[in-house]
Amino acid sequence: MDKPVNQRAWFLVLPVFLLVAFSAILPLMTVVNYAFNDTFGSNAFFWVGLEWFEEVLTSERVHEALLRQLLFSAIILAIEIPLGIAVALTLPKRGIGASVCLVILALPLLIPWNVVGTIWQVFARVDIGLLGAFLSQIGVDFNIGQDSIDAWVVLIVMDVWHWTSLVTLLAYAGLQAIPEAYYQAGRIDQASRWAVFRYIELPKMKGVLLIAILLRFMDSFVIYTEPFVVTGGGPGSATTFLSIDLVKMAIGQFDLGPAAAFSIMYFFVILLICWVFYTVMTNLDRQDLPE
Amino acid sequence: MARITLENVAHSYLSHPRSEADYALKTINLNWDDGGAYALLGASGCGKTTLLNLISGLRQPSQGRILFDSVDVTEAPTTARNIAQVFQFPVVYDTMTVRQNLAFPLRNRGMDGAYIKRRVEAIAKMIGMAGVLDRRARGLTADAKQKISLGRGMVREDVNAILFDEPLTVIDPHMKWELRTQLKSLHREFGHTMVYVTHDQTEALTFADKVVVMHDGRVVQTGTPQELFEAPEHTFVGYFIGSPGMNLLPAEVRGKTATVAGHAIALAADYGNPQGRVQLGIRPDFVSFDAAGDLPVTVTRVEDIGRRRIVRADFRGTEINAHLPEGEPVPSGATRISFGTAQIGIYVDDWRASPNGAAPGEIA
Predict the structure, then answer these.
(1) Mean pLDDT (chain B, rounded)
(2) Are B49 and A184 in contact, with CB atoms under 8 Å apart?
(3) A131 located within any domain
(4) A196 and chain B: CB distance < 8 Å anywhere?
(5) pLDDT tens, B173-187?
(6) All structural domains of chain B
(7) By the CB < 8 Å criterion, does A194 face chain B?
């Protein structure tokens, strides 16, 4: 088929290009500017090439933050995805009970990040916190300000509390979309409960679960506010994740050059991961198409 | 394989049905022989699928008992009934290959691997999918998927019955014939009790030994295709079976004479003096044009349907259809018709009356 060619059609994308330019490209370029220059204030810049990038790439501190970040994302995904699915499977399918459950589940998602952080910070305090005080009352040595394991446990439980609902809601939507006929066929074919989950529910939820994994991975990979409020990255640097480290570097130490280089690489890592996810998802679909 | 008995079974989708109108399925008594091929025929929404789902246990009846042979299975869950059912729209397990799909019911029963392989290959050959056994089921066309559903329904040899719920809706016509023939030969070979739900009379009449006609939640007649054609028990059977259906004319009946709008028509037997809404029913096949006929009509339209022609005539505002055999001259304008006396049926309040003054004949 002959497609008409008209280069003036590019003008149609001009508005969106302008919008993106002002919202993303121009701000990003100022970061690029800092990443390749050194500055001593008063807008005087000196070209340093890839020096900042080298510094960040070889920095032990950044490596550790990256490892912590990956570990954190892996742990919360390993908990939230199965837990979210499990909760979705137990929810009522219709009626007033379903609506009530959905509203209750959605509540944590509506709370601002720093409020969530504050809630858990207070909750975990040894002097007045319900959890912290209770644990020390019964003789458990618990202190998120001193023990890094305790800090990690609180952060992970907090994230699970905050975000499992999202996975549940997505999985629930996926489950609701399965036509009743599939369950009927499963019963006719004498499938066990596990077989129904494995061969009917899980395949039908695949799409929403991939989205859930992508969203939760991205969110946990750039997490900042909650751990900052609860632990401030401590004790020591035990819970200093990439974003916290970046802010420390940029605002705490005012190392604008390395921070800018760090930002750019952080951005490309996320872009890369998105691309991988997208490719994997589309390939999974393509594989099933008829020849 | 089993005989299926329904005793006083009724079903309502409401939890507290108040009147008869609340029941999707009015009280039904059925006895289906082991190894029979039955068709459930009726218009959409008459309760066919509900009845099927009661038998397979996907729904529980509001009242009554369901027996397989002499075992009461009313409370038994679907998985315990060992019954196969094929739905109107294809259901395949997306992530499995065609082979795994067909093997699934056998695997769930813990059958031995060699047997499963043999059985799956036999079924695949039957539904014409032996070449694509290792393809993923997901990317297949709708009719290929429906063939898989059919195959899954037939793969178990020891099922009590196989239920088909309008399974050929999505299959293209040429394949329909082939699959229906396959189902028939499968039936002859293995002797499963088969129940086939459809609203297509051709499908019902070619598949089944016995056709069960349902109307408005009731079974109105069970019989061979010939019985349904020759002696419909209910006006619904009369006009639902046959194309076009039975002609029905309001009539007054006294003994051996029916009077239709002042014109007397002789009957084959004495019907006494029936009360209520009395109708005379005659199949288009037994209406003939005849200058000395009983009723004056005006021919309005002639439709050529190939081998035969259908003549539509108007009798005082009521349409009367007639089949015109090949070679007969085509009537036009005002003419007269007569009915084959032996083929006239008398219906009182929609039920066929038996001669000799008997009351409206409900089916046994």
Answers:
(1) 85
(2) no
(3) yes
(4) no
(5) 887 888 888 888 888
(6) 4-13+25-230 (3.40.50.300), 245-352 (2.40.50.140)
(7) no
